[in-house]
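Our consortium's second objective concerns turning raw sequence data into structural hypotheses that experimental partners can test. To show how far this objective has progressed, the report includes one record in full. It was chosen at random from the queue rather than selected for favorable results. The single chain below, 238 residues long, was entered without modification.
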Amino acid sequence: MEYPQKTGISEVLSSAFSFWTRTLLYQVVLSLLYFSVLIMVFFYAGNYYGILPKILDIARENAGNPMAAQKASLAIAEDPNYFYFFLVIIFARAFLYPLEMGLFKIYRKIDLKKPYGIRDLFAGYAGVNFFIYTSYYLFWYIVFMYTTPTIILAAVWVLITLFVGPLMFFMNQRVFGGISITFRALKNYFVPIVACMLVAALFKYAVMFTLIGAVFVWPFTTAMIYALYRVIFNENRL
């Protein structure tokens, strides 16, 4: 894998915001699909496994007391049905993960000055793609879940898998090959990558405090990842 000589943070930020603003319609469609499916699954699974009534009771009994609510919420995890409820939510998120590949495809078409449309948003579901990306997300989340208590290891896991999605999608890399390539990229461009992703996180979560804002900025980190990917990696674009 060859890397370019220089990566400018300002160039990456400008590109990311450009991709995001030019595809706002698709960002909104993706966000509405994502949140609608998750909310429906949450309520259905929550009612089916009896978890939702407990969550509502805790919210009602501990209104205005977040510490008490948090402590009471921990007790829900001891419910045997909570594991199944949690599993359903994770599978729902894995089912939605291929949408991210659709945004990558749209960004690539913008790069190549090719026409793009709503169908491209579902490129991650075509053929075996669906099984590849849902399986990858499940693997990614399992590792993330077990590293979360350490915080640092979770952050490391996020960083070394940052480009695995686009590397799999554009360059047909396998998961561990993508992790290896991403690790080498981090060694060369650690500061630009971390700086750009921090900007993406700050922008995204600052705007997401409002429901309307969340619809527009939820997939913004995908634009930042692609903006970094296109200037860091040298590939044969077909």
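The partners drew two points from this record. Residues 1-5 have pLDDT under 50 and may be disordered. Residues 175-207 form the longest helix (33 residues). Both points have been shared with the crystallography group to help prioritize constructs.
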